[in-house]
Amino acid sequence: MNWSFQLYSARNFQPWKGVLKMLGELGYAQVEGFGGVYDDPKAFRAELDKNGLTMPTGHFSIDALEKDFDGVRKIADALGITLLICPYLVAESRPTDTAGWRGFGARLAKVGETAEKAGYGFAWHNHDFEFKKLADGSVPQDHILAAAPDIGWEMDVAWVVRGGDDPLPWIEKYGKRIAAVHVKDIAKPGEGVDEDGWSDVGHGTIDWAGLIQALRAKSAAKYYVMEQDNPNDIERFARRSIAAAKTY
């Protein structure tokens, strides 16, 4: 299994040359890009190649995807990205009702059409707010995926849990649309205080062994991406997480 690594996790542990060398040595085969590594795509690609890494997936803002798709395409082609992922919607732009979330889903659907015509896959990446109930008892994630029936989903399991939901029914319901997974863990009570309550994969509270089994059986996920939003030791996180994942 080719384990990937979301480079956002290492944004505070520069330089990138050292990060990529470490990841290659630890056995990662892939990384996932984000805006912080797109300044010089050709040079970054050279560092990936040097360390035996590929970047099949990358995060791009909704603004870039809607307003500068040509720019996104140039970055993606330089880095080898084939699955474009929209990762976030800032709080001030989030709808508050069903119609608003369906409208946002329609925007993603249009981006997905553009991406498909250009030869890329496209997916939405969740946080916790998509699972917070609206006034009518529904949740935004259902509306997003219903309004954009042809796009994929990069499922961030730990954010589903933090949103107050159980990942397993979502895997059951939308498994064939799950194109990628963020493999992230939540710290045990009293731990991870200086890491925003996150944990190294396999050392927290999420049943990753069971979830990996469910995802392999019921999802279309091709990419399993390690992430920790605020690690205090990037080498420890990367090393312990891939060691745990290899046992699943």
Any overview of this molecule?
- By secondary structure, this protein is an alpha/beta fold.
- Helices cover 42% and strands 17% of the residues.
- It has ten helices and ten strands.
- It has helices spanning 16-26, 41-50, 62-67, 69-79, 98-117, 140-147, 157-162, 167-174, 208-218, 234-245, and strands at residues 3-5, 30-33, 54-59, 83-86, 121-125, 152-156, 178-183, 185-186, 198-199, 223-226.
- The strands form two sheets. The chain has an eight-stranded parallel sheet. A two-stranded antiparallel ribbon has the order 8-9.
- It is globular and about 50 Å long.
Key terms:
single chain; 248 residues; alpha/beta; 8-stranded parallel β-sheet; two-stranded antiparallel sheet; 10 helices; 10 strands; 42% helix
Summarize the structure.
The protein is α/β, with parallel strands linked by helices and 248 residues long.
Question: Pairing-aware structural class of the strands and helices?
Answer: alpha/beta
Count the beta strands: 10
Indicate the overall shape: globular
Unreliable spans: none
Strand order of the largest sheet: 1-10-7-6-5-4-3-2
Question: What Rg is obtained from the alpha carbons, in whole angstroms?
Answer: 17 Å
String of helices and strands:
EHEHEHHEHEHEHHEEEHEH
Helix content: 40-55%
So how many helices?
10
Q: Could you give the topology of this structure?
A:
Blueprint: E1 3-5, H1 16-26, E2 30-33, H2 41-50, E3 54-59, H3 62-67, H4 69-79, E4 83-86, H5 98-117, E5 121-125, H6 140-147, E6 152-156, H7 157-162, H8 167-174, E7 178-183, E8 185-186, E9 198-199, H9 208-218, E10 223-226, H10 234-245
Parallel strand pairs: 1-10, 2-3, 3-4, 4-5, 5-6, 6-7, 7-10
Antiparallel strand pairs: 8-9
